[in-house]
Amino acid sequence: MYHCGRTVRLASTAWLLLAAAVCTAREKDDVVYFKNGDRITCEIISLEYGTLVVKTSAMGTVSIEWPDVSGITSSHRFLVQRLNGEKIYGTLNGADGRLALEGEDVPRTLALDDISQFGPSEQRFRDRLRGTMSVGLNYAKSTSIKTSSFRLDTVYRSPSSIKTLSASEDVTSNPGSGNNQRLRVDYQDRYLMENGRFVMGLGTFERMQELGIDGRLQAGLTGGTSFIQRADSNLAGYAGLAVNEEWAKDTQASTFSVEGVLGLDWRIYRFSKPELSQHTSLLVFPSLTDTGRVRARVDTSLSYKVTSDFTVILSLYDDYDNRPPGARTTNNDFGFATSLGYSF
């Protein structure tokens, strides 16, 4: 009950932050032109993984398949990224499959199918923030086992970096064995360079009671590149080092360690109905101070869009540790959760 109450409080806090972020959106004076001849006046939010997100006065937030767009115009400044990783800043103007950008750089004209993503480069915080929040609850009467889940994923895009903050909590309540909690908060700050390369700082707090971890703090620095960068998909890899402070369950002392970091991040979007998006993250941590110990984690989510704002999400996770601390004997903690998400 305590953990479920905390999940509700986290969700309420997230909703309040959401309301503060969106209640003062900028004027809706952008225009999107479609290949069938239609057009809408709106506020352009972002293009990512083949989806152009806009806000309209009559329909609220709308997601548009990028191949259906023939042109866009906006007097507001955007950061546009090509498929080869090149970044260009400027206002938007174009039709018939072309996009003209005017700004500090030399005016450029690009084909729409050469653009992988873009977002506002305005100074206002609310114009750069995007995210999804989801909650779920499963209950089996025959066993009285209850599982609650909470997910929050936010992205803040500036002209030179992408910052992400994600939080997840899965609590299983079993009358026979009590509560089991998996909690993780991740922060990543990715500094963008040319040709898809980046430098990324990361910080994590996690608790995995199934593996005997009461708490683990991690901070690291990595470098990486995008191997595949298209309008509908992105595959990135990175490597680096991290330091950890770890508290085992039922112990008072902590353990310090240094680990390597090897990661892959894969995102893909499918245009055809039903509209699906997928995100998979794989991380491997070979210890440099505890020779032979290796940790790994896999997180994957499959999202099915119900409306322009609401999504049904299936999340799967697997945490592995070949030498978990304390007296625990299990090496794996895995599970899945279904939830209803809201995008903002």
Can you characterise this structure?
The chain is mainly β. The chain folds into two domains: 26-123, SH3 type barrels (Roll), CATH 2.30.30; 129-343, Beta Barrel (Porin), CATH 2.40.160.40. Helices cover 6% and strands 66% of the residues. The chain contains one helix and 21 strands. The chain is globular. The relative contact order is 0.12. The model is unreliable at 1-12 and 14-25 (pLDDT under 50).
Concise synopsis of the structure shown:
The protein has 344 residues and is mainly β. The chain has one helix at 2-22; strands at residues 30-34, 39-48, 51-56, 60-65, 69-82, 87-93, 98-102, 108-111, 115-120, 129-140, 145-157, 161-174, 178-192, 197-208, 213-230, 233-248, 254-270, 276-286, 294-305, 310-321, 332-343.
Describe the secondary-structure layout.
Blueprint: H1 2-22, E1 30-34, E2 39-48, E3 51-56, E4 60-65, E5 69-82, E6 87-93, E7 98-102, E8 108-111, E9 115-120, E10 129-140, E11 145-157, E12 161-174, E13 178-192, E14 197-208, E15 213-230, E16 233-248, E17 254-270, E18 276-286, E19 294-305, E20 310-321, E21 332-343
Antiparallel strand pairs: 1-2, 1-5, 2-3, 3-4, 5-6, 5-9, 6-7, 7-8, 10-11, 10-21, 11-12, 12-13, 13-14, 14-15, 15-16, 16-17, 17-18, 18-19, 19-20, 20-21
Name the helicity range.
under 10%
Unreliable runs: 1-12, 14-25
Distance, first to last CA: 29 Å
Structural class: mainly beta
Report the portion of residues in β strands. Answer: over 45%
Question: Which strand order do you get reading across the main beta sheet?
Answer: 10-11-12-13-14-15-16-17-18-19-20-21
The largest sheet is:
12 strands, antiparallel, barrel
Q: Report the count of strand segments.
A: 21
Contiguous helical run count: 1
Average pLDDT confidence is 81
